[in-house]
Amino acid sequence: MQKPIFIIGYMGSGKSRLAKVLSESLNCSHYDLDDLISQAHGKTIEEIFNSEGEIAFRKMEKKQLRLLDESFGVVSMGGGTPCYFDNIDWMKSNGVTVYLRAKIPTLVQYLSQAGNVSRPLLRGVQKNDLSEFVAKHLFERQYFYEQALISCNVETLGWEEELVQKITNLN
After folding, report:
1. Do residues 12 and 104 lie in contact, with contact meaning Cβ atoms separated by under 8 Å?
2. Nearest 5 degrees, angle CA 43-CA 44-CA 46?
3. Contact criterion met (CB below 8 Å) for 134 and 10
C-alpha cells in the first residue's frame, strides 16, 4: 500500500464497514477519522459538537486529516469531511478517494434503523422529515463526493469485490 485510501460518502453509506473489509482484503490497517479526532481530543464527536460547535469540529477534522500518511492504510471519513476547507483536494493529492454512492431511500432506511444518537447533524430531525433532510443534504454534498477517483454504487451486487479489484489494479 503506497497511499492511504480515503472512503467518503454520506452518513449511513457503509464507510466504516467497508474500511474494515477493504483493509482485510488489502492486508493493511483501517481507521475512522472521527475515532482519531475523539482520541486526540478526549471527547466524543457529539460532545465536541455540543461544547465547541460544528465549526470547531471541522477545524479539528482538517488538522487530523493532515496528519494521515501512507501508514494509515484505509480511512473512513466523516460524511462532511470532503465538503469543508480544501479537504477533498488534499485527499485526492495524498491518497486514493473512494465514494460510496447509495440511494436516498437506502440511506434513510439505514439511518432510521441505526437511530440518531451519535449523529449530531441529525439531532432534532423528525423521522418523517428524514428523507427530505437527507435529499437536501446529499444534494449539497454531491459536488464534493463526485470528485473521488473511484465511485462505487453500494446497491449493486458484488460491489465490494469489484472495488477491491479496482484498488488492487491501482497499485
Report:
1. no
2. 120
3. yes
Residue in this structure with the C-alpha cell 479496482, named with its chain if needed = 166
**65 within 8 A of 91, measured Cβ to Cβ:** yes
CB atoms within 10 A of CB 141: 17
Cα dihedral 144, 150, 156, 158 sign: negative
Q: What is the pLDDT of residues 48-76, one digit of tens each?
A: 999 999 999 999 999 999 999 878 899 99
What are the residue ranges spanned by the domains of the chain?
Answer: 5-170
CATH superfamily of 5-170: P-loop containing nucleotide triphosphate hydrolases (3.40.50.300)
The DSSP letter of residue 78 is P
How far is Cα 26 from Cα 160, in angstroms, rounded to an integer? 12
CA distance 163 to 22: 9
Angle at CA of residue 129, ends 126 and 135, nearest 5°: 135
Of 141, 166, 121, nearest to 8 (Cα)?
A: 141
Phi, psi angles (nearest 5°) of residue 127 = -55, -40
**Cell numbers at residue 136, please?**
437536501
User: In this prediction, what percent of the chain has a pLDDT beyond 90?
Assistant: 73
